[in-house]
Design brief:
By secondary structure, the protein is of the alpha/beta class. Helices cover 24% and strands 25% of the residues. The strands form three sheets. The protein has a five-stranded mixed β-sheet with strand order 8-9-10-11-12.
Length: 262
């Protein structure tokens, strides 16, 4: 029995031209491209999509006001022409802003989502006071005696402090960053000051007790241990210890420093 073979047509040429766009199609495509370009240019240069409102999300009313003031010049500009990256750079330059995301909400709104800097302490240098973020960035000056719930970081009188910049004083930066361990923790005692001396972190609890945390490692663990021990200790004024040493988390030690002349 012979094999069945599929016979193919011979000498049939593929008609390529019938797949190619016609001259009319080219003309229509070119017209559409020209129209789109014209509309884009019109949108950039006219008030068709002019910025009429700036919405701020994630910021306090005071910070939102600062952002709007910074972007005031964008009112009336076309959203099509707005450079979102340039807007974000201007917003991020504000001392109280950590980062931002810019959206163009057509037809007339510029929307900014802000992540603020997290203030964790008050810097003190002489009679001056400044808020500092958990990253060690100077947020801005504050009245002396304000923000009582935030710990103080005392700096040498020669320390350069520039609003919006990161602290050049490494001890101050280390002290501020160490406070990140308190964020979201169950530590309920108010911290009067934080000190970073020779790379060793000390927290001063209101009432006179100092918590010695040692090197800035395992800080969350050390804070958790301190939080569990403090309720069992009497205040220094009541004869209790004046320091709690958690330099070695496995061996916390509480005691009193020798009194001068004692």
């Amino acid at each position: 029995m012979g094999e069945k073979v599929l016979a193919l047509p011979r000498n049939r040429k593929l008609d390529v031209l019938r797949f190619a766009p016609s001259g009319r199609s080219f003309a229509v495509g070119a017209a559409v491209a020209l129209l789109a370009g014209g509309l884009y240019g019109l949108a950039r240069e006219t008030s068709m999509f002019a910025v009429r409102g700036i919405e701020i999300e994630g910021a306090t009313p005071a910070l939102a006001s600062q952002v709007k003031q910074e972007l005031h010049s964008y009112h009336g500009r076309s959203l099509v022409a707005v450079d979102a990256a340039a807007v974000a750079q201007r917003v991020d330059s504000l001392p109280a802003v950590r980062s931002s995301v810019v959206d163009r909400a057509f037809p007339h709104t510029l929307r900014i989502r802000v992540i603020p800097e997290l203030p964790v302490a008050v810097l003190r240098r002489g009679r001056g006071s400044w808020l500092v973020s958990v990253r060690g960035r100077v947020i801005g000056p504050v009245p002396r005696g304000s923000h009582q719930r935030l710990p103080r970081i005392w700096l040498p009188s020669t320390t350069q402090i520039d609003v919006g910049a990161f602290l050049g004083d490494q001890s101050g930066v280390l002290a501020a960053r160490s406070l990140a361990a308190l964020v979201g923790s169950r530590f309920r005692h108010r911290i009067a000051f934080v000190r970073a001396l020779d790379g060793q972190i000390t927290l001063g609890v209101r009432g006179g007790l100092e918590i010695q945390l040692g090197a800035p490692v395992e800080l969350r663990l050390k804070i958790a241990i301190a939080a569990s021990i403090l309720p069992t200790l009497a205040l220094p004024s009541q004869g209790g210890p004046d320091y709690l040493d958690i330099t070695v988390p496995e061996r916390p030690v509480a005691g009193r420093n020798p009194q001068p002349g004692g």
